[in-house]
Design brief:
single chain, mainly beta, Immunoglobulin-like, 8-stranded antiparallel β-sheet, 4-stranded antiparallel β-sheet, elongated
């Protein structure tokens, strides 16, 4: 959806990748082996600035386009938790997930504001810091975008966070996304996801006469 909330393209990937552009001059480039689609559009400069959105099931990715500041990507991440009651300490199992592939295919887990552990996927294996994960400690998806991590504690109130870092090679854009979850005696409560973005001018933005050519890449992965 463009900055005016108009649907510019619709894509399906169930049987075979297929996309349909809603505007006559828009072009869609498909890479089925990467499960990615590129929307190339031409529009007046005044119509491009603002928030553009891409939906993938229940997940959403945002990109903010500003001609002076460049293109800023925002990749949503999600944090959920399960608890197993034990005699002395409770076992908390956290799941951190994003539709986008994080840089270095890794995640940081925080407890009460402090970095507690890091989990990463490399060469088909899952690591907890520098040690291989055991299934009871941590897991990684084969896509490198979903991680679980377990933590033991006897505290009744806990603040959990997971942090993923994203990089867009084409625009030299860096984004740090943090999902937050609190535990209050017996229940988990979702909190606001925070985002820090570091960006330079998008090299895929070209001004040609009175029109603006923009390439926007959807890099969703499946789980």
């Amino acid at each position: 959806m463009d900055s005016s909330d108009r649907n510019r393209a619709k894509c399906f990937i169930y049987d075979s990748p297929k996309c349909t552009a809603r505007e006559h001059d828009d072009i869609i480039l498909e890479k089925s082996y990467e499960n990615s689609f590129t929307l190339v559009l031409q529009t007046a400069k005044k119509n491009v600035e603002g928030d553009w959105k891409c939906f993938h099931g229940s997940d959403k990715a945002n990109v903010n386009i500003h001609l002076m500041k460049g293109t800023i990507y925002s990749a949503d991440i999600h944090l959920s938790g399960e608890i197993m009651k034990k005699t002395t300490k409770n076992k908390f199992t956290l799941t951190c997930y994003s539709c986008w592939l994080p840089a270095t295919e890794s995640v940081n887990f925080f407890v009460n504001g402090g970095l507690e552990d890091s989990v990463r996927y490399k060469d088909g294996k899952c690591y907890k810091k520098r040690k291989l994960c055991s299934p009871s400690e941590c897991t990684c998806s084969n896509e490198g975008n979903k991680f679980t991590w377990s933590f033991l504690s006897d505290l009744s109130f806990l603040e959990f966070s997971c942090e993923m870092r994203f990089k867009d090679e084409k625009t030299s854009t860096f984004s740090i996304q943090t999902a937050n979850l609190s535990y209050n005696e017996s229940v988990f409560q979702q909190k606001i996801t925070t985002n820090k973005t570091y960006a330079v001018l998008d090299k895929n933005i070209h001004i040609d006469g009175g029109n603006l050519n923009v390439s926007y890449i959807d890099k969703f992965t499946t789980s």
